[in-house]
Amino acid sequence: HQRSNWYIGVFELDQLQRQPFSERDVQFQTTRSQGNGGQNVNKVNSAVRATHLPTGISVLAQDSRSQLDNKKLALARLKEKLAEIELQQLAEQAQNHWSNHTQVQRGKPVRTFKGTDFKSTYVEKSYKKERAAAKKEIREFVN
Fold it and tell me: 56's torsion region: left (phi>0), alpha (psi -120 to 50) or beta?
């Protein structure tokens, strides 16, 4: 290949921690429904609010006259909402990975490799060793 300079960016990428969904992490609360339904709405707590305790996300289901049906519906809506949030986090993570890709700086090599076996020809950019040697010479000269 004709290209003689190649630039590589190395970044540490964080992994998204997936939380397994458990019904033990969900708190259910019943309330009275709103809207049509007449006497059933006024005297029975059929609406269900489900709150996912680790994330604090809550949903309300009051579509059915049955509390059990509303509980199942609230649980399904909560799972759906958590899945949407996880997809959004995955998209943000992919965007962050791509932004790392576009931030590779060209023209400032830290290490240079030569030859076909890519042996490192590392160039020391700090002068610590030279300073230490100079200090040692001064101490020996003083003593």
Answer: left
The token pair that represents 3 in the structure block:
């290209």
* Residue 45 to residues 63, 78, 127, Cα–Cα distance (Å): 13, 20, 76
| Predicted model pTM | 0.61
Q: What is the DSSP letter of 52?
A: E
What is d(CA 39, CA 36) in angstroms, rounded to the nearest whole number? 9
Using DSSP, state whether 20 is helix, strand or coil. coil
Strand partners, 51: 27, 58
pLDDT exceeds cutoff 70 at 4: no
- The answer to whether the beta carbons of residues 58 and 25 sit under 8 Å apart is no
Cβ atoms of 133 and 140 within 8 Å: the answer is no
Tokens of 117: 């076996």
27 or 40: which carries more pLDDT confidence?
27
